[in-house]
């Protein structure tokens, strides 16, 4: 009995000083160490918990209107103690998950939209994470619906031009979103795409095909191929017939048809500046930077 009583006394004595040390350590901050009768007690603020901190925030998303998946996900993840709770807003209005379970669902902090509809779901989204220690809002992220409509089936007029003269074949891309198109042209048979050189150039701004000096071998039927990189879809225009005329020109001075506008870019961002000229003989193009050396990172290509 005496041994048990002394043991209980020691436990009570140790508990008293341990709790006192715990209280003191918590009061003065994290990673505090207290020595109690040779026993080191480690106390961390995490035991008290902390507010949410984002590990992943939603990003701007383009959902293809013709997507076979019929689902889009807006991602959001945060850490915190206790584990954060999530809610979403669209255009500053709360997304009611409970009333629209068939359309919206939550997987962790991710918002999944089933059978997205442009009129109902397009907009600006914000993820909100919260617990008893605080609330945080993510950056805004847009959900847009991407599309690339077919070209008009109307026949395109033939282009007749004298040999040795320059020619421009217009692409005139159909309605689309977003504006991240890439362009190629093929001659007569798909997929024999035109190889670009000093005499032929396809602008990645408007899609037009520029031929500096028309030659007899240019005769044929041309089609513009437009590709949307965001929705991985391509469409093709009706054929345009190019008919060189045998009345060969003796030549003409260069005529710059492809020019670039003032361009703004972030530091370290890649920028493409376009330039192409018609002329006979085929013009030589040179680049320079006004009053400064050309950047060493500049790369010139056709």
Automatic annotation (TrEMBL):
Primary localisation category: membrane
Organism (species): Micrurus surinamensis
Transmembrane segments: none
Sorted UniProt keywords: Cell adhesion, Cell membrane, Disulfide bond, Glycoprotein, Membrane, Repeat, Signal
InterPro entries according to UniProt: Ig-like_dom (IPR007110), Ig-like_dom_sf (IPR036179), Ig-like_fold (IPR013783), Ig_sub (IPR003599), Ig_sub2 (IPR003598)
Domain of life: Eukaryota
CC annotations in GO: axon; plasma membrane
Species lineage: Eukaryota, Metazoa, Chordata, Craniata, Vertebrata
Gene3D superfamilies assigned to the protein according to its UniProt record, in alphabetical order: Immunoglobulins
Name of this chain's protein: Ig-like domain-containing protein
Protein's cellular compartments: Cell membrane
Single GO MF annotation: cell-cell adhesion mediator activity
GO biological process annotation, one example: brain development
Pfam families attached to this UniProt entry: Ig_3
